[in-house]
Amino acid sequence: MVNDSQELSVIFVPLVLSEPTPMVKEVRSELRPRLCAIQRGPNGYGFNLHSERARPGQYIRAVDEDSPAERAGLQPQDRIVEVNSVSVEGKTHSEVVATIKAGGDVTRLLVVDSDTDAFFKRCRVTPTSKHLTGEKMLYPLNRPHPLPSSATTVRQ
User: Fold this and answer.
1) Residue 85 Ramachandran class (φ > 0 left, ψ -120 to 50 alpha, else beta)
2) How many whole angstroms separate alpha carbon 60 and alpha carbon 72?
3) Which 3 state secondary structure label does DSSP give 154?
4) What does DSSP assign to residue 127?
5) For residues 151 and 137, what is the distance between their CA atoms, to the nearest angstrom?
6) Per-position DSSP letters for 22-56, written without gaps between them
7) How far apart are CA 147 and CA 122, in angstroms?
8) 80-96: string of b/e by CB count within 10 Å (b at 16+)?
9) Bridge-partner residues for 62, per DSSP?
10) Which among 29, 27, 26 has a CA at the least distance from the CA of 134?
């Protein structure tokens, strides 16, 4: 016990692990959308797209092993935000499929995983290709929530 007349020193020692342990999970430092450029192969792109009534949006159901989609970094449960730089927010399943097919042999999908999607929704911001880079968005201080239409983009 420490009384009023004694000093208490606290020393923080960083934990250094020489090998990964089951207690330590890999942590992503940034929540950003990903751009997956997928070259159509002989069997297509190699992913299945689906939508659900309970949650809006178009999601990746499955990614075929050793497919163009897998090599491009597409993951199951990713939500598609843009197809070939065109927003698919509010589009129907058939409209998104048609947009993907219209891309030709290469389709560029801007996607977010569930953590990134939740983060952007909490911030009330729609992810775009501007969020891929190190650009910072500056918002007026008198706004309660970030509004991209009134934002100024600044490069680091």
Assistant:
1) left
2) 13
3) strand
4) -
5) 6
6) TT-----S----EEEEEE-BTTBSSEEEE--SSS-
7) 13
8) bbbbbeeebeebeeeeb
9) 48
10) 29
Which residue bears the tokens 């910072």?
A: 136
The pair of structure tokens assigned to 62 is 């499955």
Over the chain (156 residues), what is each successive 10-residue block's mean pLDDT?
47 43 47 93 93 88 95 96 94 93 91 93 89 60 43 40
Closest CA to 71 of 101, 46, 100: 46
Tokens matching residue 83 = 């197809």
Domain 34-124 grouped into CATH 2.30.42.10: yes
d(CA 156, CA 47): 35
Give buried/exposed letters for 32-60 (b at 16+ CB in 10 A, else e): bbbbbebebeeeebbbebebeeeeebbbb
SS3 percent helix, strand, coil of the chain, rounded to 5, is 20, 25, 55
